[in-house]
Amino acid sequence: MPVPTLILVTHPVVGTTDGRTDDDHSAGSQPGFVLADASLPQLSVLDLGVTRGDGVFETVMVSEGRAPAIDAHLGRFASSAALLDLPRPDLDVWRRAVLAAIDAHPPAPVLAVKLVLTRGIESGAPGAGVPTAWVAAQPARDFTPQRENGIRVVTLDRGYRHDVAATSPWLLQGAKTLSYAINAAALREAARRGADDVIFTSSDGFVLEAPTASVLLREGNRFSTPAPELGILPGTTQRRVFEFLKVYGYETDAVRLRASELGRADALWLLSSVRQAVAVVELDGSAVGFDRELTAQLNEHLAASGR
Ligand code: PLP
Predict the structure, then answer these.
(1) pLDDT tens digit string along 91-103?
(2) Helices 236-247 + 70-83 axis angle, to 10
(3) Residue 202: is it exposed, middle or buried by C-beta count within 10 angstroms (0-12/13-18/19+)?
(4) Does the pTM of the predicted model rise above 0.85?
(5) Which of 273, 298, 299, 301 has the most ligand 1 atoms within 8 A of CB, as the residue to mutate?
(6) 212, 240, 243, 278: which to mutate for ligand 1, most atoms within 8 A of CB?
């Protein structure tokens, strides 16, 4: 894998300075961020993003140099930071840093551009209290086989009730935090069960989301997705898919859906920025309808539109 294009965001949050000097804004850099070498050490072993997973991130899909959902990602980045009581990201700086990373990267059909903001160095150590922030761009994995053939999915209990975001906001459900070890563990469990991915359910039986994707369900001409108040991440791809479906006259809705109702779907998809729309062709060992044509149309739309 090639070395990512790395940009260190030196002024990532509104209204604070980060202790860096004006030299950081010299030739070859833009105010607020600076190009760096990802093959060199850049991160402290005392960074809370590393030692506690205490931070937030986004992954933006860039197709042929365009980032169609950048605004939605920046908005969600700010919401995640707010849920973690992190300082407010300066979205203008982040937007320019993302565009600079795209420009600095050699041309590639699809890039995954990651934005990371951590709480910074552990308290008591020199440099504590200053967020750490960077943008890294690298070519995306090729998900064509999954898009064309679909995936096998198992449902797994996440262990939280559907109302956990309201009752226990400190669990940070609905924030895109750096603590993805649980999501990775769930994917390993899926592999042990002979599947490719997971749909999480709440402990009281509602459909939630996948470890790195939103769920989309089709029943006739009606498309639905689990509602964001169920303690799930509001998907930028799901939002774009709904916009597309509405143009074609389909009904769309955010709902509370019982896991037992998944079986009556005419088709099911997992939606996410880089992998885009992949059809679920098998759920807990039972076949699910595969709408090949609509899957292809969704992916064409997701890759093509935007700035
Ligand atoms: N849900 C979770 C838990 C995710 O991690 C992701 C993306 O990584 C999504 C949903 C889908 O979000 P998006 O479509 O913005 O990529």
Answers:
(1) 999 999 999 999 9
(2) 140
(3) buried
(4) yes
(5) 273
(6) 212
